[in-house]
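Ticket #4471: structure output looks truncated?

Reporter: J.K.
Steps to reproduce: submitted the chain below (272 residues) through the standard prediction queue, then opened the result file.
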Amino acid sequence: MAIASFSPDLQMHYEVDDFAEPWREHETVLLLHGNAESGEVWYGWVPHLAAELRVVRPDMRGFGRSTPMPRDYPWSPSRIADDYLALMDRLGVERFHLVGAKVGGTMALRFAARHSSRVQTLTVLAPPVRAADSAARYVSWVADIERNGVEAWARATMSGRLGPDFPAEGSEWWIKLMGRTPLSTQLGFLAAVPKVDVTPDLPAIRCPTMVITTGDNPLYPLATVQAWQRQIPDSRLLTVPGNSYHIAATAAAQCARATLEFIRSGPKRRDP
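Returned output as attached by the reporter:
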């Protein structure tokens, strides 16, 4: 377990997985998780990526084993991007590949737009780009969590997140993991999400970008995803069959292999 402290209000937990041949130069990939999650959720990705890449898996501030945030914390994608930038500075990694799932993808889009010199490739999986379009859902979630707690909310919403074909034992694992999120963090974060809009950032992303979604995504129709993906200059769209929202979990191996192939196909740029 590794901890990095960047400010008085944050101790960020992170893991580094690196099983590449130690005598061979290899690149780094930073994986950003979604809401009410932690770096643990990349369990299906690490075996595919870490044989060739140094994999960095942080817990976003407030979540996992990082410092919980008070309910009135002023959340913003830029603040979260700054945390991740500070982590990579601490690790001495100048350039790296960036992957984000769900809200982690939202933060990755902001990061790539604001810190383009640091990102070699970007892969995002089912990210919300303009959360105001779903504001009513977030408001109802806050009310539900206030009444019943985080784990009960996770249980009530899990089928829509993972789809009907995900194993019951797997759904239970996700429910328990998300249920450990501190109440103050979750209430404050969900209340802030509807204010997030990264669509102005999309044209500013300069690295090769891959967007992954499911063909029958229950939250974000394919036409909607295509519309904003086309605003990213050097981007491609990968559509995976299925009807889950959390494609990074329900098709982890397929998405990890596609991401690794995307990274391999890009221009080779090494850290100085």
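Triage note (M.O.): checked the attachment and the full token line is present. The chain has a mean pLDDT of 94.
Status: closed, working as intended.
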